Amino acid sequence: MVLISETTTPGINLRWYLDTAGLKKSKAYLLNGVVIFLAWLVARILLFIYMFYHVSLHFDQVKQMHDFGKLLVFGVPLALSIMNLMWFGKIIKGLRKTLAKRQ
């Protein structure tokens, strides 16, 4: 489930190409920013919320796992969630800045 979050990677790569090509003021760059925001929200925020909800539903099974398994179920997604939230904050800030310049 966590690997689904990688669906946002092509949009991030496209953003870099648009920036490198000097197309920061183009409609494609703006559209890419909006798509990244939506994709990030779904694939890296909402999906992780669902994943933690799913783990909580099956917590009795998770408790029976070995310590390393518990680390993989809790520690790794928690660390990724923190990083995803930090990046999502930057995406929101950048989108606001871009939209403010357009008006």
From TrEMBL:
Sequence intervals crossing the membrane: 29-51, 71-92
InterPro entries per UniProt: TLC-dom (IPR006634), TLCD (IPR050846)
Pfam families reported for this sequence: TRAM_LAG1_CLN8 (PF03798)
Keywords: Membrane, Transmembrane, Transmembrane helix
One GO BP: lipid homeostasis
Principal cellular location given in the protein's record: membrane
Membrane topology: Multi-pass membrane protein
Compartment(s) where it occurs, according to its Swiss-Prot or TrEMBL record: Membrane
Cellular component terms per the entry's GO annotation: endoplasmic reticulum; membrane
TLC domain boundaries: 1-100
Protein name: TLC domain-containing protein
Organism of derivation: Punica granatum
